[in-house]
Amino acid sequence: MSGKIVLYDFHSDTIISERRDHAKYIVKIVTYEDGGVTWIATAGWDAKVLLYRIENQENGKIELERPIAVATQPTNPESILFVKQDGVTTPMLITTRRDSTFIFYYELPTNSPRESNTEPVELVLKGRQNLAPHSNAWIAFTPCAMAISPRDPYLLAVATSSMPHMKLIIVRLLFPGPETLQFGSASQPSVASLIDSLDSTTSPQSAQARTALALQDREAAAIQVHSTTLAPQTQYSTPALAWRPNGSGVWVNSDDGVVRGIETSTGKVVSALNGHDLGSKIRCLWAGTVDLEDREGEAAKEEWLVTGGFDQKLIVWRIEQV
């Protein structure tokens, strides 16, 4: 709540390092490990996204230095996520922000770490992707939570601020590039090449309109599922979601105490778990597989879902394999 980030060692039960670089609440922290480098991104309600870089030292000692880069937002950021593109060594950082239906793609710095006394550089905005490309409304919703499919690194689940019920969007990432927009693993023409391909007699205004329409069509085609989850929420809600480990579904939270499961192939609500108090907000979810032993002592795996709510309950659900 103070804008402080803390690096904590749970083995020794000690705080290794702490910094306060945000002026207001930190609402999201994400990490990405790549060899001997760990990237950390934080989103705060001071309308900033900060990027940290930690390099593993030979003696095993690590310390959280001041941020190396910053992305200043016109409105408060809602969600951030590191995503990896095939053939590119460094990940990209995608962000969403309040009162915008776009996903914004930022390029991470590739140069060596700065001196500790220099100011953070500004992250380079490489592109953006509209989740409501044909919407006539000024602001249809805000993308509030994002998660990458465990089976497809180009498939993104997005929980939105739509009222009175949350809407879930499953969309393929359109990675920006110098000549192409990467549509999953398939290349699509970039806006620049679309403009070059237009007839030379076409007026600039007409060319721009046709290019904008082609881009909107591509963004619309990237949306695989647009589902109304029936999960009630208000302007004060905090949407959250979690993928099933096999990628076949997404769990979403709600304000009525029910956890709903959405089938990703159809967008239909196929499961409703009732365990929290009726009318209590479900605040967080985690889904994954855990290693267990069966009655004979043999190793086994089970799919679990963990949910926490404002009723002060933490519930572990065993999910049937279907």
Model description:
This protein has helices at 191-197, 204-222; strands spanning 4-9, 14-20, 26-34, 37-44, 48-55, 69-72, 77-83, 92-97, 102-107, 121-122, 124-130, 143-148, 155-160, 165-172, 174-175, 180-183, 186-189, 223-232, 241-243, 249-252, 258-263, 269-274, 282-293, 299-309, 314-319. It is mostly beta strands and 322 residues long. Strand 3 and strand 4 form a beta hairpin. The longest helix has 19 residues, at 204-222. The radius of gyration is 21 Å and the shape is globular. The relative contact order is 0.09.
Question: Which keywords apply here?
Answer:
25 strands, 322 residues, globular, Methylamine Dehydrogenase, Chain H, 5-stranded mixed beta sheet
